[in-house]
Amino acid sequence: MVAEGKRWRFAMVCSSNMNRSMEAHSQLGRAGLDVESYGTGTHVKLPGPSLHEPNVYDFGTPYGAIYDDLRRKDPDLYKRNGLLPMLKRNTSVKLAPQRWQDNAGDGLFDMIMTFEERVFDLVVEDMNNREPKLMKSVPIINMDVKDNHEEAGVGAKLAVELCQKLEAIDGDWEEIIDDLITGFEKQHKRRLAYSIAFY
């Protein structure tokens, strides 16, 4: 339940806090929404020269440092596959990738959105493992989005629309969320999953 007229606080979550959650973070921010973003992986993983050689970084490694590292390794490859432009965008949004499971100090969110079923399951599990103190409910909504630049852009636009619809709700979101999600699915031919957790 969000108090009337109060702004919602949104969390966008993908695996590495690099592409899908950051594109959504960027677009929600531009739309004037209050947003943070996270990843759920144990490390930040980016494509490397081959499938068996990903680039792996710790959460908290600044996007700028990752950019410099990849540019030093193979500027042509990482420009061509879109990693360098993506990292440049990320540096304009925030300093470094953050891990969802370490975010308890960041305060409460009014809606958590994930972009992959596995990530959704990890967020639900993490929220269920936290001790609910305030009994404040929060919807966790998943919309599967392929982890590539084009799809991330499409997914982010849809995320903005969904978040704006939620923030515009007059009254209790719990009473209308089923209708809102059904309408959204019909309109965009995208399946959403959602769960409710408590702070």
Automatic annotation (TrEMBL):
It holds the Pfam family Ssu72. It comes from the Eukaryota. It is found in: Nucleus. The keyword Nucleus applies. The keyword Hydrolase applies. Belongs to the SSU72 phosphatase family. Protein phosphatase that catalyzes the dephosphorylation of the C-terminal domain of RNA polymerase II. Plays a role in RNA processing and termination. This is RNA polymerase II subunit A C-terminal domain phosphatase SSU72. It comes from Setaria italica. The gene is LOC101766173.
